Amino acid sequence: MHYYKMLLLAFLLLPIVVFGQQDSTTIQLNEVVIKSVNLQKSIYQAQKVSNFIQQINTGKDLANQLKSLSGVQVRKSGANVSKPIIDGLSSSRLVYMVNGVKLENQDWADAHSPEIDADLAKNLNILRGAESVKHGSNALGGVVHVDAGRISSNKNINGSATLYYSGNTRGRGAHLKIQQNSGLIQGFAWRLSANNSKNGDYHTADYNVANSGTSVASYRAELTYKLQNVEIESFYSNYKSKQGNYFGTLTGNVEEFEERIEHGQPLVTFPYAFKIEAPYQESTHQIANTTTTWKFSRKWFVKSQYTYQKNHREEFDVRRSVSNTVPVQDMILSANHFNFELGFKNNTLHAALGVQIRNKENYNQPGTGVTPALPNYLYKEKSVYTHHTLNVNQWLLNAGLRYDWAIMNARGINFLGQKYGENKDFSALSAQVAAKLATEKWDLQSSLSHGWRIPESFELYANGKQHGIPIYFVGNKDMSAEKGTKWMNTITYKAKNSRFEFQGFINKVENYIYSVPTHQYKQLFSGPAAIFQFKQQDALLYGIDLIHSSTITPKLEFTNKFTWIQGEEISSKNPLPNISPLRLHNSINYQLPVLGDFEEINLQFGHEWVGKKNNFNPDYELSPQTPSAYHLFNIAASSRYPINQKLTLRISASIDNLFNTLYKDYLNLHRYFVHDSGRSMNVNVQCNF
Amino acid sequence: MKTKQFFKPVLFALVSILMLGLNSCSKDDDLPATPNDENTELGHEEWSKVSFRFHRGHLHGSTFHGSPSNENVRYFKAVQEISYEYDEAGNLILPDSPIRLIKGEIYALEITYFNKNGERINAEFTSEINAPIHQHFFLTKNAKHIDTDMDFSNAESILDYVYRDTNPEDGMYTNEGVSLRGADDPIGLKGYFFVNEAYTQFELNVILVHLIHGTKWDSNGNPFPFNAPSNAFLGTQDLNIKIPVRVFTKRPSNDDFDQFIQEIADEFHVTAEAAEADWLEAVETPFESGNYWM
Questions:
Q1: Where does it localize (chain A) (predicted)?
Q2: Closest partner CB to B90 (pick from A277, A380, A415)
Q3: Which runs of E-coded beta strand occur in A525-614?
Q4: Residue in chain A lying closest to B49 (CA)
Q5: Which residue has the higher pLDDT, A303 or B147?
Q6: Pick from B25, B40, B88: which is nearest to A405 by CB?
Q7: Cα(A86)–Cα(B92) distance, integer angstroms
Q8: Are A75 and A63 in contact (CB under 8 A)?
Q9: Are A329 and A280 within 8 A, CB to CB?
Q10: Homologous superfamily of domain range A2-688
Q11: Min CA distance, A112 vs chain B (Å)?
């Protein structure tokens, strides 16, 4: 740890030493504007969640806010825990960038959500082109950007306060954002944000799902200081969540377990409860980050970044000998990142050369009384990369290379008291090339990215029951790194009143890691658990999205999205598990500039159809039956109501699952045991000041 | 000017590279500590072994008195024990021989749980916190006519059970300072069965429920019968074991003693003479040596 401190000190001192000589080297410019790379203009075109969708989804988690984007599906555990899937890949095959920081979280199991508060974000974007050079390992499926946006230049204190309510869970919450561009200290700005929400049990169309509540409490403080050609941005965030685990999946013996799967819903239901009881999981994620960007000439800049993250995960179960308040799993993942980038940018070329250091350590806190699910491990990665983007006429061209070296030293102990673990080292080359042609009517974009991912320690060493559901995972310590090559293409045609978009991808993943049931049971005293074994083989994922939107009248827009995705083992051609069935989404949007005292009125009627999963391998499922196809309808409205010049209200309301359909989704891990969420009427009021 | 201008980024790059160098990637550079062996430390989160001890006997009023045990008895045993435990790979070892019962007899059952260290941990269930949310139930499953696949029609009536838990849980009733918890506060670590039917084989499904919501009493404050737990109880269980049971004969009256001996002989694949000699060995065991009470 000692040299970490020295490193940090050197890092923090470096800008000061360098800026100390500022007077003698100042370049006289009329104006210096430092911009980060604008995702919308990047060759890897980001898809952004619209403001309207963000408004009506206030209070929902990240995955549910992203699912409006093409290529995104949601992997759920029940209806309260969810994570995004991009082009068939999720968890550690996605990179989450939170305000420019690569999130180091513990989402190694399906029942773990990424620790991100989407309500505090201004911009939610995804990159489907993996852009593996810039974002490094794990970006096999894509990148999720969660960004608070720049602090307002307003010299007065301003911000927003929001209250929201979700009918299905009787959930409620509030968030507050205040900010100011200080007039006292030139170039200094700050922002404080806080969010607190609680949801009780969710309700399917027919019954209540016990102990499925959630709560989130998060806050963030940001400071930016801009002096001439230097900008320092710092933030600290603290995200704490608590998620109940539905316990009705537990059974006594194999016959009951199979009967319960066949029955497909709880034998016994419990009345609604707001309180979360064991079993549940708690996670706290803290991030402290400082980024310094120094534009030392008109075209050159350097950017340095230090990030510290601490992710404390605790899982609580029903216990006998000790209190339920003693966790059964208690682990802390701490991480340090050091990033340095030298960049060049002019009208035609953007080039960057960077180095990155990424260290993390997982430590199991003693005193749980239960064998840790993961080993203690140290992970160290260092990387060099360069990428270049060239703008020639209507063409945008990009190429990049990256090399990573990594070690992972793990030491664990299993439930028999036997020690395990080893020292592993990895290295890999990542590369990307991309081209984009933009004309008046056509946009063509193609990218090829080659990236990699080190197996999660859970995939290597798991040997235990997953929290909350009777599935017993067995890892495989001999698995090697995944390497993926993703070719992503987008063709957009813009007609007078219509827009057509084709998005297609092929992703070849060498050594793809996934878990499948062995159709054997581990007989535990608390009942049987179905054994899932991690395996690895080459896989191919491919799919297309077709998007059409037409403006029927200036106020009325009609949008259709169709998603088809396949995943298969290359050698056997067997379908991969957990790949979405066909999806179709239609929506009609009606916009009114003014109606009485209301402004910016937006109405949406939406329909989603999800097909039955037919091409699946029964050996890879617990049940030979997949959920039936289903239709969901929803309506939403949002409007702005100005009170005076400084104060406005933004009022949004929506009804999800309008007809209270009882349904199951193939991508829901709990589909064997419970249905998805029923109707929910949601409302939120935002006061902007 | 130009030179100075480029000096800083070059310095920056050099420091960066230096930092990379500091961040050694030597494979054996750092080793994490091995996590604690938590099972050894606390040792009582999951049961490592559970034993079921059936004791044949009779009643003095409602108090059970166990028949004397004799090591020389091979077939007509007063005490039978069956246990379930994990092997080294963490798999539950299932017993390969059944419990054999006789219609008309009374059998006390005492269940004992052990942790990984071999320590008895029954007291965990009878604590002030755990007693209201724990209860053993005894269900008759998959009952057949003996040695056939024909369903046994009176499956529900094969067994009756009386809860006889004590306070403290490890004390023998009738000893000084040991009291009964009573029928209003059943745990099921101790109790006795009446065997009402003969010539059947079934699985005695022993379930220990562990309630998350509420307590084991119904809305009127009464406990649920030994063989009829509320469905709401079955969501979380600490134990769910199926013990193979055979009721292979019935207690003899005066005129069917020979049949009784023959059925013992058939059950254990021995001669009638050997069966009778075993029975005689059992019944001639000094009655006073039976010192098991419940």
A1: Cell outer membrane
A2: A415
A3: 527-553, 556-569, 583-595, 598-610
A4: A525
A5: A303
A6: B25
A7: 40
A8: yes
A9: no
A10: TonB-dependent receptor, beta-barrel domain (2.40.170.20)
A11: 22
> Phi, psi at residue A89, to the nearest 5°?
-120, 145
Q: Does A382 touch chain B (CB under 8 A)?
A: yes
- Residue B70 falls in which region: left (phi positive, over 0), alpha (psi -120 to 50) or beta: beta
Q: Which residue ranges make up each domain of chain A?
A: 2-688
Test the B interface: residue of A525, A526, A673, A674 with most B CBs within 10 Å: A525
Judged on CB neighbours under 10 Å (0-12, 13-18, 19+), B176 is: exposed
Using a CB-CB cut-off of 8 Å, the residues of chain B touching A355 are 16-17, 19-20
Task: Please state the domain extents for chain B.
Answer: 42-257
Q: How far is A116 from chain B (nearest CA, A)?
A: 28
pLDDT of residue A505: 95
Q: What percent of chain A has pLDDT over 70?
A: 90
Which residues in chain B are contacts of A415 at CB distance < 8 A? Answer: 39, 90
**Nearest CA among A662, A666, A655, A665 for reference residue A678:** A662
A212 touches chain B (CB under 8 A): no
CA A91, CA A283: separation in Å to the nearest integer?
16
Alpha carbon of B178: minimum distance to chain A alpha carbons (Å) = 23
As a whole number, the mean pLDDT across chain A is 87
Q: What is the rounded average pLDDT for all residues in chain B?
A: 86
Q: Which residue of B has its CA nearest to A17?
A: B8
B236 contacts in chain A (CB < 8 Å): 247, 250, 318, 526
**Residues A630, A128: Cα–Cα separation, whole Å:** 27
Residues of B whose CB is below 8 A from A7: 19, 22-23
- Name residue A650's amino acid: R
Rounded to two decimals, the ipTM of the complex is: 0.72
Integer CA distances (angstroms), B182 to A530, B160, B166, in order: 39, 17, 8
Residue in chain A nearest B234 by alpha carbon: A251
Gap between the Cα atoms of A461 and A483, Å rounded = 20
Q: Which residues contact A155 (CB under 8 A, 6 or more apart)?
A: A180, A181, A182, A183
Kindly determine whether residue A252 and residue B237, on different chains, have CB atoms separated by under 8 Å. Answer: yes
pTM above 0.90, yes or no: no
Please provide the DSSP assignment of A607-673 as one string.
EEEE----S--GGGSSSS--PPPEEEEEEEEEEEEESSSS-EEEEEEEEESTT------TTBGGGGT
Among candidates A676, A672, A325, A263, which has minimal Cα distance to A466?
A672
Mark yes or no for CB contact B23/A380 under 8 Å: yes
User: What pLDDT is stored for residue A262 in this prediction?
Assistant: 83
With CA atoms as reference, the chain A residue closest to B10 would be A342
CA atoms lying within 13 Å on the CB side of residue A327: 19
Please, what is the angle between helix B272-283 and helix B257-268, to 10°? Answer: 110
How close is the nearest chain A Cα to the Cα of B184, in Å? 22
How many Cβ atoms are within 10 Å of A619's Cβ, its own excluded? 12
A222: tokens are 């940001």
Of A285-294, A314-323, A537-546, A675-684, which range is least confident? A314-323
Phi-psi region of A249 (alpha: psi -120 to 50; beta: other; left: phi over 0): alpha
Asked whether the beta carbons of A321 and B124 are under 8 A apart, the reply is: yes
Residue B11: list chain A partners with CB under 8 A: 18
| H helix or E strand, kind and range, residue B13 | helix B2-22
Residue B209 Cα, gap to closest chain A Cα (Å): 9
